[in-house]
Amino acid sequence: MTSLKSLIESRLGSQISQVWEALGETTVTVHPDQYADLCLALRDQPGLRFDTLIDLCGMDYRDYKEGGRDGPRFAVVVHLLSVELNQRLRVRVFCPDDDFPAVASVTGIWTSAGWYEREAFDLYGIVFEGHDDLRRILTDYGFVGYPFRKDFPISGYVEMRYDPEQKRVIYQPVTIEPRDQTPRVIREDNYGGFIPQ
User: Looking at residue 141, what is its pLDDT?
Assistant: First the structure.
């Protein structure tokens, strides 16, 4: 029986930059300009038949391996399932431009990608070219920045609150005071009645 890895290498080798197996899972890294074509082939070719997109998410590789990684910062990772053949595959594509991360949309191949692509756009700022309704889905319309990027401040830039005098919701600069993040057990010697000897 031919493994999924060798089947993908023999049929789609020119479209991929890397394919490997680890922990019983096969992962393919695809060139950005081949991403949509590869996804279509993964859905339609006999022996592959990945008819279901289970998940799609953005990734930020900034500071990956303590900053020792060379290459693009943002990637999109897609998890696929072939119900017919009972096999799974992970596809990863890196966005070629860190300042304006963009890849092709796969909503024309798997309609379930629509909401996932909107989420990746909202949280990472990755643009999916060809998506017909790419707008924020989890944050507010006036939200500034992309909260899952590793350089986004933990407390954000603005906060929203109801102002009883103006009788409306207002935005203002963040007023959250930084807290001590040391766990209480470490801060207090007698926490929980335990007194160290």
Answer: 76
Evaluate whether 101 touches 117 at the Cβ level (below 8 Å): no
| Contact predicate 158/174, CB 8 Å | yes
User: Could you tell me where the beta strands, DSSP code E, fall in the chain?
Assistant: 16-22, 25-30, 52-60, 74-82, 87-94, 102-104, 127-129, 158-163, 168-173
**Domain-located, residue 162:** no
The token pair that represents 141 in the structure block: 């319309």
- DSSP SS3 for 127: strand
Instruction: Compute the Cα dihedral for 63, 67, 73, 79 and give only its sign.
Output: negative
- Whose CA is closest to 180, among 188, 168, 172, 169? 188
Is the whole model's pTM more than 0.85, yes or no?
A: no
Model confidence at 195, pLDDT cuts 50, 70, 90, reads low
C-alpha distance across the termini of the chain, in Å: 64
CATH of the domain at 123: 3.30.460.80
